[in-house]
């Protein structure tokens, strides 16, 4: 599949075949990404999550200061030797990078296939995977970074305040929704679900770590925690099933109820004896409704049944937990007692040209003036036509472009779209300028999706044309995808700097 096709599929929210582990190109633009629509899964994405990409090892070394020990955020034990680092991309986006043991996934294609499969998942209840790297014997996963610690930290190792009851109920529901979405997407298996896999984002909302969808190694164990918390069927045959994940969700419910990591067998004895006060976290100081706690205990008991077929499914989990939600109007960061971290969109580190500045201001009038003045100067070299192609069809096509140019100059943007479309639909000649002009026309007609597609097509025709990136930036900003818009603005500025050092064009 070509660059233009993959770009358009990314815009439409569809997936395209991944390039395979032998392709180690840097994911610099929308043309190297795949995204997936989270339809049918409850809370949709807000547009800030980047599509899934392939990273080079150099990208990730740079992001993590050559995998500095100072940036380690978690380490596993001997059973699953891998390390998670905090990193930062050039656009200032924070990421989490999981670095596997060198022999964990000897087959790069198998690892790439697994990563791309999980990379299709996109939901606000997940800490989504945004990329992977296969380089020689290195295997790495990249995910959104969650800055507000794990559920384990907030339950077991808190310093300032314990999790209030309403927040615990919210955690249970959100993780149940994450599992239900993943089941709907055909990704039911989650390895070693526990309180360390539940993370809190910049808004304080709980999310399920995307790393857990991939085993720690191709043939390795799926559970690295104490055997007392492991599903009984896993102890029998070493296999993870969808019912195993429900069992592990039950252990998280126990954590939320007790504020401690209690072995399921011990907890089930207390539940059977209806010894609610003994099981409940004393740090809650009685600030919970007994009816709600009883409902959660009963759900935990069902999840922890010895026979897998007797456990509830993910829809049952959500249906049970949804009516228990209280304080729905209180933001999670307030209940967590943290300040909401508002990270400003990244700004270009390089000076912008007049075109770049006009796009940063989203000044469509100024963009129009610049495109009229620039005319087709930047199209030079993008088309080479044989003598045989100078047919009547070619003359008609160029006439359509000429009529489009007149309409564009006179600000008749609907007519310009019609004429430029006639030029484009013939397909004999590709003009990045025509795509850029039609993109602006779409913006002026309040059609940002169409504008983004045209700007991406301009990039496909001329991959190093700053204007293509600048126009993508404006369209993304109109779609309220501010971080992505800033990324495209930075890309355009970088290409202009390259031009000034002697690159293509002037």
Automatic annotation (TrEMBL):
It is an enzyme of class 2 (transferase). InterPro entries: BSK (IPR045845), Kinase-like_dom_sf (IPR011009), Prot_kinase_dom (IPR000719), TPR-like_helical_dom_sf (IPR011990), TPR_BSK1_C (IPR058209). The keyword DNA-binding does not apply. Its EC number is 2.7.11.1. It comes from the Eukaryota. The keyword RNA-binding does not apply. Residues 70-325 form the Protein kinase domain. Keywords: ATP-binding, Cell membrane, Kinase, Lipoprotein, Membrane, Myristate, Nucleotide-binding, Serine/threonine-protein kinase, Transferase. SUPFAM superfamilies: Protein kinase-like (PK-like), TPR-like. It catalyses: L-threonyl-[protein] + ATP = O-phospho-L-threonyl-[protein] + ADP + H(+); L-seryl-[protein] + ATP = O-phospho-L-seryl-[protein] + ADP + H(+). Its main location: membrane. GO terms for biological process: brassinosteroid mediated signaling pathway. It is a lipid-anchor. GO terms for molecular function: ATP binding; protein serine/threonine kinase activity. GO terms for cellular component: plasma membrane. It is found in: Cell membrane. Residues 13-45 are annotated as: Disordered. PANTHER family: SERINE/THREONINE-PROTEIN KINASE BSK5 (PTHR45863), SERINE_THREONINE-PROTEIN KINASE BSK1 (PTHR45863:SF22). This is non-specific serine/threonine protein kinase. It comes from Stephania japonica.
């Amino acid at each position: 599949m070509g660059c233009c096709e993959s770009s358009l599929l990314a815009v439409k929210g569809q997936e395209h075949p991944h390039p395979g582990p032998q392709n180690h190109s840097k994911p610099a633009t929308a043309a190297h990404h795949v995204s997936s629509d989270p339809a049918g899964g409850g809370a949709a994405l807000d547009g800030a999550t980047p599509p899934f990409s392939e990273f080079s090892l150099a990208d990730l070394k740079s992001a993590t200061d050559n995998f500095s020990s100072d940036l380690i955020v978690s380490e596993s034990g001997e059973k699953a030797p891998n390390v998670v680092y905090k990193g930062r991309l050039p656009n200032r986006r924070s990421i989490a990078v999981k670095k596997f043991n060198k022999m964990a996934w000897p087959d790069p294609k198998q690892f790439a296939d697994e990563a791309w499969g999980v990379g299709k998942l996109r939901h606000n209840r997940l800490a989504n995977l945004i990329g992977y790297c296969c380089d020689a014997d290195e295997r790495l996963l990249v995910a959104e970074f969650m800055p507000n610690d794990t559920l384990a930290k907030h339950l077991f190792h808190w310093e300032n305040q314990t999790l209030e009851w309403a927040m615990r109920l919210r955690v249970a529901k959100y993780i149940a929704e994450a599992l239900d979405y993943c089941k709907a997407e055909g990704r039911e298996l989650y390895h070693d679900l526990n309180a360390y896999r539940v993370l809190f984002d910049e808004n304080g909302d709980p999310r399920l770590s995307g790393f857990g969808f991939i085993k720690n190694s191709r043939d390795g164990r799926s559970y690295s925690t104490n055997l007392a918390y492991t599903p009984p069927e896993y102890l029998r045959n070493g296999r993870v099933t969808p019912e195993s994940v429900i069992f592990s969700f039950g252990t998280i419910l126990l954590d939320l109820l007790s504020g401690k990591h209690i072995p399921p067998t011990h907890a089930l004895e207390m539940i059977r004896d209806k010894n609610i006060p003994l099981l409940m976290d004393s740090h809650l100081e009685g600030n919970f409704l007994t009816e709600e706690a009883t409902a959660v205990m009963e759900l935990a008991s069902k999840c922890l049944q010895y026979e897998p077929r007797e456990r509830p499914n993910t829809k049952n989990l959500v249906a049970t937990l949804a009516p228990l939600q209280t304080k729905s109007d209180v933001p999670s960061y307030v209940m967590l007692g943290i300040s909401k971290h508002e990270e400003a969109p990244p700004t270009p580190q390089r000076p912008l040209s007049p075109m770049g500045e006009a796009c940063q201001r989203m000044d469509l009038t100024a963009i129009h003036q610049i495109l009229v003045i620039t005319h087709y100067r930047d199209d030079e070299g993008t088309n080479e036509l044989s003598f045989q192609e100078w047919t009547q069809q070619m003359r008609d096509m160029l006439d359509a472009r000429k009529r489009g140019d007149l309409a564009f100059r006179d600000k008749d943007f609907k007519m310009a779209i019609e004429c430029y479309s006639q030029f484009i639909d013939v397909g004999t000649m590709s003009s990045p300028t025509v795509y850029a002009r039609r993109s602006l026309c779409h913006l002026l007609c309040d059609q940002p999706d169409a504008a983004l597609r045209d700007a991406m097509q301009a990039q496909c025709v001329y991959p190093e044309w700053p204007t293509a990136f600048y126009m993508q930036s404006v369209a993304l900003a109109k779609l309220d995808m501010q971080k992505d818009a800033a990324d495209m603005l930075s890309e355009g500025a970088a290409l202009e700097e390259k031009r000034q050092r002697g690159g293509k064009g002037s």
